[in-house]
Amino acid sequence: MQQGILWLGLAAVFGLAACDPASPPPLARERAQCANATAAPAARQAACDAVLALDGIAAADRAVALAHRGEAKHQSGDPTAALADFNAALAIDADYAEAKLGRAEVLLSSGQLDAAAPLIESLLQGDAPPARAHYLRGDLHAREGERAAAITNFDAAIAADPHMADAFAQRALIKQADGDYAAAARDFDAALRLNARHAEARAGRCWNRIYQRIDLGAARAVAEAARAADAALVNAQLCRGLVMLRQQNWPEARAAYDAVLLVEPVNAAALFGRGFARREAGERREGAEDIRRAYEFNSDIDEEFERLGVDF
Fold first, then answer.
1. Where are the alpha helices (DSSP H) in the chain?
2. What percent of the chain has pLDDT over 70?
3. Average pLDDT of the chain to the nearest whole number
4. Which residues of 26-55 are buried (b: 16+ CB within 10 A; e: fewer)?
């Protein structure tokens, strides 16, 4: 059942209503906002709440609103509440693709790969599976360490939807991990052409410049752009921290690594980088303690920093 079609074009309908003296349909603005994937998560969730509170709402419309609200909750960092909404939508229609996609994304992001796999495979059945299903299977394979299979599925996602910035960015990360820096750079650039604020692509581009030993100032500019897009993105702050270490900007390096440790308190690279910055800034005891803790999680962490241009 293709409930998503029910709300297709709602934003356009509402826009035309402004020129029509007749009143718009009940909650037309809220329905359009609830369906708008680019809206701010809080605003989108509030709009979906209003739609779901509507008296006599049809079951199909309820499933649509629940799935959209689940997307907003997941985007705002509440995977448990998001999963509850996706499950509620699937209780109305067990074959609703958008709710299946949302549920699979939550399961993947929380590390429940075995639970996500059958959902993704069910979405790939049929003649025209959604591009996002190919993307999710690529994500699944990437998390399992199956890089070739991940690339194949990201290729399929891009073939099905050439405007999927996420697929370009994730394919680039795998190419970069394999040392194919030029191909990775092309994919990062493709992702950024599609979405100039794509934080993962910006962070990846920062690391790409580090690996290729391109101008450190350019790497810093990309790192700052990645931080502006998502200050909590670990990969962005790690790259920014490394750039600041190499530029001997100890306060900014420490700030970047502090941001990582708020999200991942035992991240070895962040502990080591912060320790190095603290030591060089004169906090020798505190710096030594951070470095000692980093070695507990990665005994070769100093060698990794040296390979990236930091002389320990």
1. 10-17, 28-35, 41-52, 59-75, 79-92, 97-109, 113-123, 131-143, 147-160, 165-177, 181-194, 199-211, 216-229, 234-246, 250-263, 268-280, 284-297, 301-307
2. 92
3. 91
4. ebeebbbbbbbeebebeebbbbbebbbeee
